[in-house]
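SAMPLE LOG
Freezer: B-3
Tube label: C17
Construct: single chain, 110 aa
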Amino acid sequence: MKVKTTKRHYEKYKKLCEKFNLDAYFWHNEMLGISREKMTALLEEDGNLNNVSLRRWNMASSPLFGRKHTININGEDDGKERGMSKAEAVCCLKFAARYYFVGAEPEFED
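STRUCTURE (predicted):
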């Protein structure tokens, strides 16, 4: 399955997911209490996974909120420490769901 994204978005969240070991979702049978098969169906329906409630993403991403990292908006390590925003934390989990848990491939729009 292919999921539309931009190269910049993909690179940033790939690096953040690797930094915080979210690639480990590859080995899990469930994510957010959702089976791999159901998450695959949800991803096919909406490539941004907006059909999973934001409340669920927010609750699951809480441990990432405020974690320190040095990856800027372009996906580059600029050495400037910053805390992860709630939006970044949710994007990290959605990235992990798409590419590690479901196993989708990126389709770059740019």
